[in-house]
Amino acid sequence: MRTTTDHGMTIAVVGATGMVGSRVTDEAGARGHRVLALSRKPADTPTGNSNVTPLAVDTTDADALREALAGSASHRAADAVVLAVRTVPVDERFLVGATRTVLDTAARLGIRVLVVGGAGALRSPGDRDLLVADNPAYVPPDIKAVAAAGVAQLRTCRSHTDADHVYLSPPALLEPGIRTGRYRRGTDTLLLDADDRSWISAEDLAVAVIDELETPGADPLITVVHDGQHSPA
Ligand SMILES: NC(=O)c1ccc[n+]([C@@H]2O[C@H](COP(=O)([O-])OP(=O)(O)OC[C@H]3O[C@@H](n4cnc5c(N)ncnc54)[C@H](OP(=O)(O)O)[C@@H]3O)[C@@H](O)[C@H]2O)c1
Question: Which residue has the CA at smallest separation from atom 15 of ligand 1?
Answer without folding.
Answer: 19
